[in-house]
Specification:
With 267 residues, the chain is an alpha/beta fold. The chain has a single domain, classed as Vaccinia Virus protein VP39 (Rossmann fold, 3-Layer(aba) Sandwich), CATH 3.40.50.150. It contains eleven helices and seven strands. The chain has a seven-stranded mixed beta sheet with strand order 3-2-1-4-5-7-6. β1, α3 and β2 form a beta-alpha-beta unit. α6 packs antiparallel against α11.
């Protein structure tokens, strides 16, 4: 949940249907590396906090005994259940970081994929300290589009999407010069032993997927843009179709995990 307040709870309601189709998936190799580095086994439990449509919950369900997938947005949980509910070991819980309590049990690993920035980060880490096992960890996941020739189209695409996001106050606030990086909060928390793990891949992304990616952002979600959402989709298509081959573009992506553990945790 965002530190900005309860009004942010429903920001992703109309973005949810576009998320899985458009967002960069985390590399399976990255998931395996994090599971290995944190000593995760089928006897362990994972909390995916701010789970969205369940990308991380679904991935770690193959490595853990139980995953608790927690999100404040009902539409995100609906999408997550539809996509990953058949795994049988994911429990879906509506709630935010404000709802963290010891009644959820203890966890070996708490994952967050592009959600930590919406929370009261210091308070969230304080609460998690009472819920994570002594040798457990927090893992923050994100992705980067690398500055390589394959991604030459990306700068103009991002500029276009940012133009539509420019009136979103929460987006501007989080991107402002006063923003404090996650590492600063982690270093001031009990989980101050930090490691960064990344996997770099070349993929193909379609123009249609890049439209979905734009609509999956809270700042450019359909219910925020209204009729302008159709105009954004048309502009993305006009920009990228001349560059695409069979409707697709190359994309070099780094998917990353920032691991945070207590200093006394065993390596």
């Amino acid at each position: 949940m965002a530190a900005a307040g309860l009004s942010d709870l429903r920001r992703f309601r109309s973005a949810a249907p576009h998320y899985l189709a458009g967002r960069v998936p985390y590399a399976p190799r990255l998931i395996r590396l994090v599971a290995q580095l944190t000593g995760l086994t089928r006897d362990d439990r994972v909390l995916d906090l701010g789970c969205g449509p369940g990308m991380l919950a679904g991935a770690f369900a193959h490595h853990a005994g139980e995953v608790v997938a927690m999100d404040p947005e009902p539409e995100m949980l609906r999408v997550a259940k539809t996509e990953f509910g058949a795994s049988g070991n994911i429990r879906f819980v509506r709630g935010s970081s404000f709802d963290l309590e010891t009644g959820l049990g203890r966890f070996r690993l708490v994952t967050m994929g592009r959600s930590f920035h919406w929370m009261d980060r210091a308070e969230t880490l304080r609460r998690l300290d009472g819920m994570i096992e002594p040798n457990g960890a927090v893992a923050l996941f994100d992705s980067d589009t690398l500055d390589v020739p394959d991604n030459a189209w990306s700068a103009d695409y991002k500029t276009l999407v940012r133009r539509y996001a420019a009136t979103d106050v929460a987006h501007i606030r989080r991107r402002g010069g006063s923003w404090v990086r996650h590492e600063a909060f982690l270093l001031d928390s009990p989980f101050n032993r930090l490691e960064q793990v990344s996997v770099i891949e070349r993929r193909q992304v379609t123009v249609a997927q890049l439209v979905e990616r734009a609509l999956s952002r809270s700042s450019t979600a359909p219910d925020r843009l209204g009729i302008a959402a159709t105009r954004l989709a048309d502009e993305i298509a006009a920009l990228l179709r001349p560059l695409a081959i069979d409707g697709a573009l190359p994309e070099v992506i780094a998917t990353n995990a920032l691991l945070a553990r207590r200093p006394e945790a065993e390596p």
